Amino acid sequence: MNHPDDLTLSVPPTQDLPLLPLRDIVIFPHMVAPLFVGRPQSIAALEAAEKTDKQIFLATQLEPQTESPGFDDLYHLGVRGKIVQMLKLPDGTVKVLVEGLSRARVAGLSEEDGLLLAATEELADISTSVIEAGAIMRAVRNSFDNYVGMSKKIPAEVSAASASIDDPSIFADTVAAHLQIPIPDRQEVLEQLDVALRLEKLLELLEQEIEILQIEGRIRSRVKTQMERSQKEYYLNEQMRAIQKELGEKDEFKQELIELEEQIRKKKMSTEATDKARQELRKLKLMSPMSAEATVVRNYIEWLLALPWKSGTRDRHDLKKAEEVLDADHYGLEKVKERVLEYLAVQALVKQIKGPILCLVGPPGVGKTSLGRSIATALGRKFQRISLGGVRDEAEIRGHRRTYIGAMPGKIIQGLRKVNVKNPVFMLDEIDKMSTDFRGDPSSALLEVLDPEQNHTFGDHFLDIDYDLSQVLFIATANNLHAIPRPLHDRLEIIHVEGYTEEEKLNIAKRYLIKKEIEAHGLKTSRVKFSDAALLEVVRRYTKESGVRSLDRSIASICRKLARQSLLDKNKDFSVGMKQVEKYLGVPLFNYGILEDEDTVGVATGLAWTEVGGELLSIEVSLLPGSGKLTITGKLGDVMQESAQAAFSYVRSRWEVLGLEKDFHTQIDVHIHVPEGAVPKDGPSAGITMATALASALTGRAVKRDVAMTGEVTLRGRVLAIGGLKEKLLAARRGGIKTILIPEENRRNLVDIPDSLRNALILQPVASMDRVLELALVEQGEAK
Questions:
Q1: Contact 497, 362 (CB under 8 A)
Q2: Which residue of 27, 442, 571, 629 has the fewest CB atoms within a 10 Å radius of its CB?
Q3: For this structure, is 728 an active site residue?
C-alpha cells in the first residue's frame, strides 16, 4: 500500500503535460538540472506549466539540430518533471530549474494553441530481490567512488552524497546523472525499468569510463615526463650559453652546433630522418671542426634540414579554372588535358591518391615540355624540370654515397630541394635519350622513382634513408617509345601527342606564336598583321615538321626584318602577305602538293613515321637480266630488308594471277631501292609498298601517282596494322596525295584523326595484298 502522504503526489495513469524537448541532455528522476530555453514553442510549454501545477514532460531529441521536433523525432521514454524556478533573461531566453519526478512514456502528441501536449503514461520500476540488488549496488558504489576520484569534472561531495542513498533505484539514477557518457547510453539507462539490470548497465559503463580515464592519465604522465626532460635540457643549454658569454668565448663551431641542434628540433621531418640527423650531430660534436669528415657530416645534416619533408602546396580543385589554364597555354592536345582533369577530379573526391606517372610521347616541337609547366599551373603546384638527355650515370638519379669526396644527392632530391615542396610537378625530359655505360644504368634507377607502389620509400644513396615521392606528379617526355626500356615502359601511363595538322598550326601561330615573337622583338601587335595565306605559305613551303619549332623560327625571322624596318619608319604599319613571306624568308625550302607528272612503272609511294613526324617514302624497283638475285639498297634496317624479301616471295607466289611465267625469277635480277640512301630506315610498314612496286615492275602496269600506302605484308598477302597513322596521313596531305591505302585493322584508329584531315583524304582500308594491287595499279593502257 502507498503511504497516506504519497496521495498528494499521485498522478493519473495517463495525463496530458506540456512537452519540453531536450537537446544533448537526459534528465533522470530525482535529478535537478538548470536548462536554458530559447525556442518559442518550448517557452510556451514552460509558461503553460507554470500557470497550472508546474508539471512538464521532459523528452530528449534524437537529433539535436531538429528545430521543431515531432513524435518521431523524440525518444518516447522520458521523465515527468516539475519546474522549481524560472527566470526570463534580457535576451528573450528563459533559465529554468527542473526536477525529475518519475519515468513516463509518451503515447502521442497533440497541439493546442501553438502548444505541444504529450499524452504520458507513468512507468513503475520493476523490483528485484534485495540481496541481488544490494550486491550489484555495492559494486557500482565502489566503481563510482573510483570514477569520482579519477575524474576532475565531478566534485568529491557527489560521492559522499550517493553513499547515503539506500534505495537502489534512486541510487542508480543519481549515479547515471553524474556520468560523462554519450546521450544514447544515458537514454538506455533511463529506459531500463528493471532496477537490477539498470545497475548492471551502470557498472559496465563505469568500468569503461574508468579504463578511459586510466589511459588518459598514463598519456598525461608520459607527456609530462617528456616535457620535464625537454625543459631540463633547455635550462642546461641556456646555462651553458650564459657561461660561455660570461667567459667571453667565441667558439663559432659550438655556436654552429647549437644552431643545427635547434634547427633539427624545429624541423618537421620523418622519424627516421630526425633520428639520423641527431645521430650525425652527436658524431659532429666529437670531431675537430677542421677535419674533412666534419665537413662531410655538416653538409649531410644541412641537406636533411633543407629538404621538404612535410611542406607542400594545396591542389586547386576548380576543374573549370584548371581547364581554362590548359586551354590558354596550349591548342589541341585534348587527351593530355582530359587526363589531367581526370586526375584533379579523382583527387578532389579521394583527397589523397598516389601520383600518376604520365609519359608524353610525340615528335619534337609539339609542346610536350611546355605542357608540363601548364599542368603545374593548372594544379596550383610548383614545377621542376630535369633533362635526362645524355645521362649515363646511375648516380645522377640515386646520388653518390657519402664515402666519395664531393658526394651529392641525385637529381630527384636536388630538384625537390629547389622547389621546397613535397608535391611538385616533376618533369623528366627526354627520358628516351638516356644511355648506359660502366657507371650503371640510369633507366633502371628510375624504376623505383616511377613506381607508385615503391616510390613512397625512395632510397637516395647520399641520404641513406627513405624519402616519400608518392605525392610527386611525375611527367616524362619522349620522342621515341621504342627507345624506352620495357620495365620502365611498363610503369608509365603513355599518352601519345601527335603532330599538328595545318589548321592546328595555323591556330597556334595566330593565338600564341605571332604575339610572342612580336613582343619579343619590340614590336606592337596592333601594327603587325599576318594574313592566313602568308602563314599557310610558311607552314607548307618553309617548314617540314610535326611540331611548330621551325614555324616559330620563321615567324621570328620575319619579325626581325620588320623590327629593322620599324626603326627606319617608326609610324609604318606592317601587313605580311604571301609576297612578303618570300621577300623575308627567301626561296621556299620545300615543295608542297607537287605530284609526279605521270603514273610510273616500278615506283610506289609509301608513308613512313620518323621522330620528327611522317614522311613520304618513294620505293623504286628495277629489273635486270640475271639469275634471280635480289638486291636491296637505301641503308635499310634488318626488319625492312626482311619485309622486302617477304614482299618478293608474295609476288612470286602470285605469278599466275599476275600473268607471269612460273620461273620468271630465274631469268632476272631484282633491285629494290629506297632513295635518300644516307638516311637510315627500318620497320615493316613499307611491306605493301615494296610488293606494289615489285608487281608493277614485273607486270608493266604503272602505279597511280596520287595513291600512297602503308602496311605490313605477310607471305600469304595479308595486310597487318601499323603505327603512327596520324603522322603518315599528315605527310600524305602535305605531299598533295589524295588516296591513302591503310590496313583494315587500323580502321579503329580513324576516330583519333581530326575531321579536317579525314575529310581532305580518301582513305581505303585494305585487308589483302590483292585488294592493294587492284586499287594502286593502273589497268593496261590507262597510264597517264
A1: yes
A2: 571
A3: yes
